Amino acid sequence: MSTSDWMPDVAHPWTRFALIVVIALAVAGLLRRVVNAVLRRFAIHHPMGASIIRRANAPMEAIVPLAMLLVAFRAAPDEPARLVRVLEHVVGVALIVAVTWFIVRCIGALEAAVTRFNPIDLEDNLRARRLQTQVRVLSRTAMVVVVVLGTAVVLMTFPGVRQFGASLLASAGLAGLAVGLAAKPVLGNLIAGIQIALTQPIRIDDVVIVEGEWGRVAEITSTYVVVKIWDERRMIVPLQYFIENPFQNWTRTSSQILGSVLLWFDYGLPLEPLRGELERLCKNAAEWDGRVMVLQVVDSNDKAMQVRALVSSADSGKSFDLRCKVREGLIAFVRREFPTFLPRYRADLDATEPVVPLPR
After folding, report:
1. Which terminal CB of the chain, N or C, has fewer other CB atoms within 10 Å?
2. Residue 140: burial class (beta carbons within 10 Å; 0-12, 13-18, 19+)
3. What is the pLDDT of residues 329-359, one digit of tens each?
């Protein structure tokens, strides 16, 4: 048996194509090793970059070989052309999907890195909440845009779909109007998300009053906001709501807040001892931040006077606890020291009128 019987015929087009594919895959593997080494050295000094590299590693493993295969297909034989073109098209679609996946993972990694390096479980977390809100909303919007663009590019690689899209674009008319009306809520929420990210009427962990409910902003997606209500319920609110409707934001510029306690007492109650008790309660309460402590008569009627204790706290959660402590403490103080001045109804009985006995 001669050597020419088992050696491949390099002059044959398909043999050359097979060798080119093997060489392309070998080059892709070598290139991937070089890129990995460079990225690892970069990640040592850049923690945020390391997080992005770690998340984007999986799609990168597919992008390099697919790109090299696509280049190798340029040297494929012309016959049979149909099979070669189908394989080339499949590889091209796979490359578009891998690139889309890579971009989405990079955006998600950037969001995760910003969230990790800017925690909101701190006393002064205004800057962290601002950054997290911007990155989270913009990243979700960018992911949607990238996926839509990637899907559109994939569809445009199919001649039939491309012709259909061109004819639909040319005809426009009622079909285009129907699609526009159907997409209006989605597009409206996407635009509202961009507005919220830039102007920031709300941020992550903001305390808000929405539809009469007190809660914290737990999550902001590309279409809705999750508000965690104080009793562990979750309110799902569309993004457009915060652009089109008024709502209360208790932490817009600062988490500090004033809390009031309203109580009714008899006119005879002296106020100075009550002010002294309020001062004692506030100084003994860890929730009081030392800024405001005021007791005033703010209202009255023909039966009693209304007393308001105004106290300050670092945030709304502490304010609620402080108000409860002050309310309980002042009521207990009046009951203990001045029990006769609790609000009550008075009536005069005329002893001259006969008493009618009740029937048995």
Report:
1. C
2. buried
3. 999 999 999 988 887 766 665 655 555 555 5
